[in-house]
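Lecture 7, part 2: worked example. A protein chain together with orotidine-5'-monophosphate.
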Amino acid sequence: MESFGTRLHRAVSERGPLCVGIDPHPGLLARWGLTDDVQGLDRFTRTVVDALGDRVAVVKPQSAFFERFGSRGVAILESTIRQLRDAGSLVLLDVKRGDIGSTVSAYASAYLDPSSPLYVDAVTASPYLGVGSLAPMFELAAEHGGGVFVLALTSNPEGAAVQRARTADGRTVAQTVIDEISQLNRGATPLGSFGLVVGATIGDTGHDLSGVGGPLLAPGLGAQGAGAADLRTVFGSSLAAVLPSYSREVLSAGPDAAALRAAADRVLADCRSVLAAR
Ligand SMILES: O=C(O)c1cc(=O)[nH]c(=O)n1[C@@H]1O[C@H](COP(=O)(O)O)[C@@H](O)[C@H]1O
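Predicted complex, written out as structure tokens:
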């Protein structure tokens, strides 16, 4: 079984370093001329998958926008995951799960067990019940070639108060998360399967990402105000591992498929110009 890190490394080499999020906001549905209901959701996601599934390395459905329609929304999420896999992109499900270990086991089964209807290549996870509480996700991911992206330094302004608080040994909370994920990736080549989420909006925070050994998902680009040039400031010498992530910036170009593809190509070119200079 190939590891997620190996699969991601290959996908990025073939398709370029880009993750596009599927975030069907009510405002985007309206802008696309769609109704704010399951039919609109279905049409929106099918359009994104048809336009981008065969060319973007990673697609990141945001679970919240499917869950808000209940079981019928989740059914659309399940079929979106299948369609993306058929189209050849890796699926990173943005669920930001975190809980005590015994419950995390159930989340791991939901997303990282190949027999689950919501089985994906990777998920986002929250470490604020302790990185160790996420161990069942790490274990199942390792067993089945999956990945986990753990929040470290999020793109929203509220995150800093928690993430940059100092622990008893003087490190920030974020640095302890970074260090624990780095340990999990030790020895993995060409890329570890355990990633971190580091927002492109946060500026130079002085955190040491050099030893992570896994992918660094960078949301906050486009709609939240960061641009590709900010990646250099935030990631410095760790640019090689960065996976830039855009949702609204690309999605707002729809519903025309050619316009969606052009938007994805444009942001990829922007990011490449920064990442190539690493
Ligand atoms: O885990 C994430 O993807 C994430 C982490 C973070 O720090 N900030 C952040 O914006 N995100 C997600 O990335 C997406 C950003 O969407 P846009 O601002 O439209 O590009 C949303 O689905 C957020 O939930």
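The pocket of orotidine-5'-monophosphate is lined by residues 21, 23, 62, 94, 124, 154-155, 197, 199, 219-220, 222-224, 245-249 (CB under 6 Å). The longest strand covers residues 90-97. Keep this in mind for problem set question 3.
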